[in-house]
Request: fold
Amino acid sequence: MSAPHDLPYDELADVNAQALAGYLPPCNVNAEQSVLGGLMLQPERLHDIPVLKSEHFHHEAHRLIFAAISRLVVACKPADVISVCAELDLRGELNAVGSLGYLGHIAENVPSAANIKRYAEIVFEHALERGLLIAAAEISDLAVERSGRTVAERQAEAVRLLSGIADAAATDSGPTTMAEGVRRGTNEIMDRMDRGDALGGLSTGLAGLDKLLDGLKPGDLIVIGGRPSMGKSALGLGFAIAAGLNGQTVSYNSLEMQASKLSKRAVAFVGAINLTRMKTGRMTPDEYTAYTVAATKLSDAPIWIEDRSGQTLERIAAEARTMKRKRGLVMLVIDHLHLMPIKGENRAQALGRVSAGLKELAMELGIPVVLLAQLNRDSAKGGAVRRPTLPDLRDSGAIEQDADVVIFVHREEYYDPNASVGEAELIVAKHRDGEIGTVRVGWQAECTRFIDTPPSWSLKQKAAAKRWQEEEL
Reply:
C-alpha cells in the first residue's frame, strides 16, 4: 500500500528537519496506513493500542486522521470513513489529509484489521528511532556549543535528552484504572501483613521516627529543615548511613563539606567517637578500636559522596539517573538546598523549581530524595525559643508544597542554658501519607548524631520517654 503522489503533506512534517539533515527519517508508511485503515473498519480496536498517540505518526496527514478517530471513539461516535471525513472537515483539516478519496483508499487496502496491534508496534518503534536521531543531533550540537554553559551543564542536558527517549519507550506509563489501582494496593497491603512489623520504606535509623513515618518511601521528597547548628546534616547523614549499612546504595550530595570531612563525621557517628579527639589524633584506646570497626563497616557500605562545587539540579539529576541504572540507587540526600547555584532568577521561584524538580526525580527513579533546607532568619527573631513551623522554610512556599514529608530539627538547649542537655525534637510538620507529630530523641554533640535515647538517661527517664513517645504516636 502506498500513499497517492499528490497527498498534501510534507515528508518531514512536524519533525526536526534540521536535526535530521542527511538522514532518511525512519518511518513505515504502510504500517501507519494500516493502523488508520484498521481503526476506521473496527474503531473499538483503539483500546487495544493505548500506547499509540498521534505524535507517533511520521506524516502530518496521518497524525490528523488518528486524532480525529480518537476524538470520535472517546465521544462514543462512529469512526468510519464518512464520520472521520466529516470530523476533519468540521475542523478545516480535510484538505490537509487528501480528502475523502485518501481515507477510502487506506480503509479499503488495510491487509487485516486483526493485526492492528502489530502495525501499531511498528509505528511506535519508528517514532522512537526518529526521537533517537533528533536527540543524537542535539547532543552533537551540545558538544560544540559555545554559549557560556559549562561542560557539566551540557552533559546534564544530554542525559536529560536520553532520559526523555527512555521515558517515551516506557509503554506501561499510561493512566491506571481504579480496578488496577485497587489490585496493586491490595497486593501491597497483603505483602505488609505477611512481613509483619517490616517498614513500608527505608529505615531512618531512629525507631521512633520510623514508627511515625513508616520509613522513607520511594517517590517521596523528604525535607529536613532547621536553623544553623541544629543538626540537619547529622540527621541526613544518619539516614544515609542507616541505608548504607543495610547494603543499600545511597548518594550523598554535599554542597558545603568535603568528602574527607564528611567521612570523618560518618565514622564518629557509627563508632560513637568524640569527633574532636578523632580529628586531632587524641583518641583513647577504646575509641581507636571503635574507629577501626566503624571505618571497616563504612568502607563496605555502598555510600557515594559527591562533593564537587556547582551541583545544579540538572547535574544532580543526571548523576542520580546514571547511578540508578548502574548501581541500583535507593536514596539520594542533598545537603543543602540553599547552597545550590541559582542564576538570573527570582530566588523563591528558582528554589521552587529545584524542589519541584527533585520531587519529579524521586517519582521518576522510585527512590526517597532527602533535601536539607535552611529556615528563615526571622523564625528565631529576638532570640525567641519557639519550635519551627512550615512557614519558616526559607525563601519559598513551594518547598512546603512539593515535599511529601517535612521534618524540623529542634534542640531547645541551643537557646536555653537551663534546658535538658542531650535532648532534641524531630517535628514531623507535614506527612502527606500519614500522621504528623513530634519524636523526642537523644543528641550526642560530641559525635554529632541523634539516637533513640541519650545514653546518660536513667532507666526511669528512658521509661518516661518511651511512654511519652507511645502516647504521642
Remarks:
- The CA atoms of residues 417 and 433 lie 37 Å apart.
- The chain has 16 helices and nine strands.
- The beta strands are 221-226, 250-254, 303-306, 331-335, 369-374, 405-410, 423-431, 437-444, 449-451.
